[in-house]
């Protein structure tokens, strides 16, 4: 587990300090040069404040949602905005955070309300295009639409469609060929089920593609998409609906790690919704898939695997404020799942700690095989998130970037227009420089993994979750 250390020694605790100011359209000083072809903006979501009702929230995942946007033009301009939601108002007015990831929901009635009528709108996990607008999302079935220029909250979208899931993935996958997002959720009830859905570009109503009945649903965060299949990686962190009704516990506390169940790969046919295969392997836990593709009669999935779900418990602020998490155990692994239900094979692609695995959208959203995976690395077990990594999944070669006193967030690969190499482009990442007490947007060259440019922000940004590059034109 995490090594105990004195607060401030590693500076890691700066990544959990609340942001007090909102900045609009501030031009940043730039070292080096961002590519001229970068346009539009890179927007990152994550917790910006960690107090609600005057007290620290319990878990990193319950920090108040704040967007940080970097716009590319003649230079780089910076804007940060908290989402103005019910969760934000309640936190400001001193009310407890109800219905969040690890916070009590106010007893049984509060939990029922959070799972039905009032899901949390603290959408701090990811950003997507929704109905032609920019939207912040999390694992509850709501989306918060924002103005793409100011990042100001426009409205909270509660879906009114055929999908009844009370808990959804924060990672709907984009299929650029078909022009749609595909996602899934869990619908709790007398008959629990996973629901697979699609959301065509320009729409705000999801179309139900298929359902899978399940006795005890798993807490799943991400999934994998190929041209024909959606792959749910159902690790054995499961809960029965009655488990949610224990008073004074958080949503995630209902789930229990049951390794004897193993981890199941659920291959759902996107056209029919049918389960094509559901083989089990020895149990492992995962937050994120890097990419998946079809190869002959197999589906190949690259994901970051952990031995168990203890990584979730290491992300409580009580631990993070005084130590660093043991993030070195997540490794990029390849699973090959036969379509005929045969034995699944696996291998570790590279022996490095990694999280937030990403591939170039030029392959990922085109349902193509990938050669390179980029991620946040953890070379030093006592100091998580202290590097960026690029992994060649064919050769196992690893490139790293790091700097003393600097933590790095999720990388986003942006391909050079008309690139003829998969790694021809830049890797964007938000840094936290604990000595300077500032953050910066970093651009690495995708090929050499050397720094091309960085733009420093006026204030330090807490550790965030996911970001996305939105070009000035196109998706
Ligand atoms: Fe995520």
Which structural traits does this protein have?
475 residues, mainly beta, Neuraminidase, five-stranded antiparallel sheet, 5 helices, disordered N terminus, binds fe (ii) ion
Structure description:
It is a single chain. This protein has 475 residues and is mainly β. The protein has a domain at 150-470: Neuraminidase, CATH 2.120.10. 6% of the residues lie in helices and 41% in strands. The longest helix is centred in the N-terminal third of the chain and has 9 residues, at 107-115. It is globular, with a radius of gyration of 21 Å. It binds fe (ii) ion. Fe (ii) ion (FE2) binds at residues 125, 170-171, 221-222, 287-288, 465-466.
Average pLDDT level: 91
SS-based structural class?
A: mainly beta
Separation of the first and last Cα atoms: 41 Å
Question: What would you say the CATH architecture of the domain at 150-470 is?
Answer: 6 Propeller
Q: Which regions are unreliable across 5 or more consecutive residues at pLDDT < 50?
A: 1-9
Report the major sheet.
6 strands, antiparallel
CATH topology title of the domain at 150-470: Neuraminidase
What's the CATH first level of the domain at 150-470? Mainly Beta
> What integer value in Å does the Rg equal?
21 Å
Amount of helix: under 10%
> Which distinct ligands sit in these coordinates?
fe (ii) ion
Put simply, the count of helices is 5
Number of strands: 37
Shape: globular
β-strand percent reads: 35-45%
């Amino acid at each position: 587990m995490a090594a105990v250390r004195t607060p401030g020694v590693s500076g890691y605790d700066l990544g959990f300090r609340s942001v007090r100011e909102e900045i609009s359209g501030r031009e940043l000083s730039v070292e080096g040069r961002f590519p001229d072809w970068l346009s539009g903006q890179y927007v990152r979501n994550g917790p910006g404040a960690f107090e609600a009702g005057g007290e620290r929230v319990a878990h990193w995942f319950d920090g108040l949602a704040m967007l940080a946007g970097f716009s590319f033009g003649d230079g780089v301009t910076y804007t940060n905005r908290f989402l103005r939601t019910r969760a934000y108002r309640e936190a400001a007015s001193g009310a407890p955070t109800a219905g969040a990831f690890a916070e009590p929901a106010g007893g049984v009635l509060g939990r029922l309300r959070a799972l039905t009528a009032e899901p949390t709108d603290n959408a701090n996990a990811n950003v997507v295009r929704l109905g032609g607008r920019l939207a912040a999302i999390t694992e509850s079935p709501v989306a918060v639409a924002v103005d793409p220029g100011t990042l100001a909250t426009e409205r909270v979208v509660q879906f009114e469609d055929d999908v009844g899931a009370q808990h959804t993935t924060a990672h709907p996958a984009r299929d650029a060929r078909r022009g749609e997002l595909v996602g899934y959720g869990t619908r709790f009830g007398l008959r629990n089920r996973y629901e697979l859905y699609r959301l065509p570009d320009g729409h705000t109503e999801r179309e139900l593609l298929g359902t899978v009945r399940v006795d005890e649903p798993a807490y799943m965060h991400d999934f994998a998409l190929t041209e024909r299949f959606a792959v749910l990686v159902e690790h054995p962190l499961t809960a029965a609906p009655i488990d949610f009704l224990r008073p004074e516990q958080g949503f995630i506390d209902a789930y229990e790690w049951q390794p004897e169940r193993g981890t199941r790969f659920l291959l759902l046919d996107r056209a029919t919704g049918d389960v094509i295969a559901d083989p089990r392997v020895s149990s492992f836990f995962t937050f994120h898939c890097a990419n998946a593709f079809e190869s002959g009669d197999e589906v190949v999935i690259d994901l970051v695997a952990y031995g168990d779900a203890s990584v979730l418990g290491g992300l409580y602020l009580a631990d993070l404020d005084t130590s660093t998490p043991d993030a070195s155990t997540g490794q990029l692994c390849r699973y090959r799942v036969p379509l005929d239900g045969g034995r699944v094979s696996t291998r570790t692609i590279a022996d490095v700690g990694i999280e937030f695995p990403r591939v170039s959208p030029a392959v990922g959203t085109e349902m193509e095989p990938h050669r390179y995976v980029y991620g946040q690395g953890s070379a030093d077990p006592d100091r998580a998130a202290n590097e960026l990594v690029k992994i060649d999944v064919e050769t196992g070669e690893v490139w790293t970037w790091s700097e003393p006193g600097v933590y790095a967030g999720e990388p986003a690969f942006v391909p050079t227009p008309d690139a003829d190499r998969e790694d021809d482009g830049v890797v964007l990442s938000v840094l936290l420089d604990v000595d300077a007490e500032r953050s910066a947007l970093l651009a690495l060259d995708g090929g050499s993994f050397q720094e091309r440019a960085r733009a420093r922000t006026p204030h330090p940004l807490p550790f965030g979750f996911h970001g996305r590059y939105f070009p000035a034109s196109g998706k």
